[in-house]
Amino acid sequence: MATERTFSIIKPDATRRNLTGAVTKMLEEAGLRVVASKRIHMSREQAEGFYGVHRERPFFSDLVQFMTSGPVVVQVLEGENAVARNREVMGATNPAQADEGTIRKSFAESIEANSVHGSDSADNAKIEIDFFFKPEEIVG
Ligand code: RTP
Ligand code: MG
């Protein structure tokens, strides 16, 4: 498996509790390297665009409200099998179902305020990276 990139967000519930470093440490310990990182406060337009695939889901407006409720840290992660490895260390969407040792088991507050986002495929990783980063902001 060649080196791959994925896209990660440290969500507002985690930045609010000063967990940016703790979450990043778990990503790094999982074998992922942070090759781009910035702290932003997403606009409603950005959050609606980013989560466009969920527009018809019942939780969409709550999710947009949550993701714009405070700062987030958007990151590009690089490593062997990065998409799958990141999903593994994140744990299940619902922290009640997340395995021990995962980020969501350790830190998530609820199914919505679940501390991290990670791309679910290599194709979506590319789309999501391009949504937030210019090529020159990524230093591998
Ligand atoms: P993510 O996209 O953030 O990495 O998380 P995921 O794949 O595990 O979950 P997904 O189904 O894509 O849902 C995106 C985000 O929406 C919120 N959510 N709320 N209230 C609810 O039932 C509900 N379900 C999902 C979570 O913040 C989830 O990460
Ligand atoms: Mg998802």
Overview of this protein structure:
InterPro entries: NDK-like_dom, NDK-like_dom_sf, Nucleoside_diP_kinase. Homotetramer. Keywords: ATP-binding, Cytoplasm, Kinase, Magnesium, Metal-binding, Nucleotide metabolism, Nucleotide-binding, Phosphoprotein, Transferase. It holds the Pfam family NDK. With 140 residues, the protein is of the alpha+beta class. The two termini are 17 Å apart. The model has no long low-confidence stretch (mean pLDDT 98).
Biggest β-sheet, characterized? Answer: 4 strands, antiparallel
Straight-line distance between termini: 17 Å
The radius of gyration computed from the alpha-carbon positions, rounded to a whole number of angstroms, is 14 Å
Q: Report the total helices.
A: 7
Helical fraction: 25-40%
Output the strand order for the largest sheet: 2-3-1-4
- Mean pLDDT across residues: 98
Tell me the number of strands.
4
Low-confidence stretches: none
Topology as a string of helices (H) and strands (E): EHHEHHEHHEH
EC number: 2.7.4.6
Binding site for ATP: 11, 59, 87, 93, 104, 114
Enzyme class: transferase
Function: Major role in the synthesis of nucleoside triphosphates other than ATP. The ATP gamma phosphate is transferred to the NDP beta phosphate via a ping-pong mechanism, using a phosphorylated active-site intermediate.
Topology (elements, then pairings):
Layout: E1 3-10, H1 12-16, H2 20-29, E2 33-40, H3 44-50, H4 60-67, E3 72-80, H5 82-90, H6 103-107, E4 116-118, H7 122-132
Antiparallel strand pairs: 1-3, 1-4, 2-3
